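Why does residue order matter? Because the sequence determines the fold. Keep that principle in mind as you read this record.
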Amino acid sequence: QLQLVESGGDLVQPGGSLRLSCAPSGAIVDYKLISWFRQAPGKEREQVSCINLISDSPDSVWYKDSVKGRFTIARDSAKNTVQLQMNTVALEDTAVYYCAASTWPRCGVVAAYFDVWGQGTQVTVSS
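Structure:
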């Protein structure tokens, strides 16, 4: 059974950087997508970025418009993790960040297609 563990959340100043990691344990072979979601207090959960684990094509990653050019999702095969590099963070990036896994073969699907979720890691952007 697949489990996901997030780490790397912290307090960071506006304009700063942070790297989140998602470490899968267990059987991931059937899962093709890892996405990062976030949920801010009083707001709905939103998908931030997605990576296709079995494709290297240009459309194998996806980003929410508001994080394009600031966030980068990547797989670290040596560490068996999926990382979200967050640069030039803003106050509105404050949220609990979750990673999730899906057996769907293509990024761009909604949260209902993700059936394994981590516990989340808190990111707070504040001066």
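The two ends are 40 Å apart (CA to CA).
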